[in-house]
């Protein structure tokens, strides 16, 4: 690996954007792409996943997308995907995580700066927080729940009780997280509904929900994790 390739890799890892990387290095974007491609070939591993709106839309609607060079008038690369049905096109996998603890703080002051106080203290202890759920304020109070790994739960409880001075803090270490992952789910109706239907049909209670453009996650009882994965897979893929 030469120094230019190494510098390109480090810059792209920092900016997470091919265009900004090219601008910082004062090279063409194609140069960045070629350097990363050659490095991936050398290491025999995919270092980055390139994601942009055109590829996502083409993937979602099964449109063939041809990527052309702006410099050479030659045929480009056709990007397409063959799927059995709409759900197979949108959902790429079902995953579970049993290393989950749910911590709840009751009767938190409903005022500016409270969330910063809580999660700032947790960040100082390098506690990684995943899902956060805040209740609607009532009588000047609110409840905040969040998930972290079981290994961080004891430290989180100690920080909240001793440093943040919250006396109503509970921890549930009997939970698991199940997730479905895929492109464009948030802009396509019905995906979350089918996931929830699969859990409902198997009498699995949902404790917390988190969504993003590419993932929907539910916190459930740990003993139901395997059953939930099978039910969701059957609903969306079979």
Q: How much of the sequence is in beta strands?
A: 15-25%
What pattern of helices and strands is seen along the backbone? HHHHEEHEHEEHEHEEH
Q: Low-confidence spans: pLDDT under 50, at least 5 residues?
A: 52-57, 82-89
Coarse structural class = alpha+beta
Helix content: 40-55%
Q: On the 0-100 scale, what is the average pLDDT?
A: 81
- Largest sheet at a glance? 6 strands, antiparallel
Through-space gap between termini:
45 Å
Describe the fold and architecture.
The chain is 41% helix and 24% strand. It is of the alpha+beta class and 238 residues long. Helix 1 (3-15) crosses helix 3 (29-43) and helix 8 packs across helix 9.
Summarize the structure.
The protein has 238 residues and is of the alpha+beta class. 41% of the residues lie in helices and 24% in strands.
Attribute tags:
two-stranded antiparallel ribbon; 24% strand; 238 residues
Question: Topology of this structure?
Answer:
Layout: H1 3-15, H2 18-25, H3 29-43, H4 53-60, E1 65-67, E2 77-79, H5 86-90, E3 93-109, H6 114-124, E4 132-134, E5 141-148, H7 150-163, E6 169-181, H8 191-201, E7 208-211, E8 215-221, H9 225-237
Antiparallel strand pairs: 1-2, 3-5, 3-6, 4-5, 6-8, 7-8
Helix pairs in contact: 1-2, 1-3, 2-3, 8-9
């Amino acid at each position: 690996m030469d120094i230019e390739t190494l510098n390109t890799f480090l810059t792209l890892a920092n900016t997470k954007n091919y265009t900004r990387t090219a601008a910082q290095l004062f090279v063409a974007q194609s140069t960045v792409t070629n350097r990363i491609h050659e490095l991936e070939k050398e290491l025999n591993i995919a270092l980055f996943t390139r994601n942009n709106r055109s590829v996502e839309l083409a993937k979602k609607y099964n449109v063939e997308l041809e990527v052309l060079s702006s410099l050479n008038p030659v045929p480009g690369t056709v990007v397409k995907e063959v799927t059995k049905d709409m759900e197979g096109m949108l959902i790429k996998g079902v995953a579970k995580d049993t290393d989950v603890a749910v911590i709840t703080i009751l009767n938190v002051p409903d005022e500016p700066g409270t969330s910063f106080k809580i999660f700032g203290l947790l960040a100082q202890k390098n506690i990684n927080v995943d899902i956060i759920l805040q209740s609607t304020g009532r009588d000047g109070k609110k409840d905040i729940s969040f998930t972290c790994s079981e290994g961080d739960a004891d430290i989180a409880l100690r920080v909240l009780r001793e440093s943040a001075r919250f006396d109503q803090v509970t921890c549930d270490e009997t939970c698991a997280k199940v997730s479905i992952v895929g492109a464009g789910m948030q802009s396509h109706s019905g995906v979350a509904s089918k996931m929830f239907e699969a859990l409902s049909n198997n009498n699995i209670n949902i404790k917390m929900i988190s969504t993003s453009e590419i993932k929907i996650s539910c916190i459930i009882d740990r003993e139901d994790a395997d059953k939930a994965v099978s039910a969701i897979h059957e609903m969306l893929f079979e």
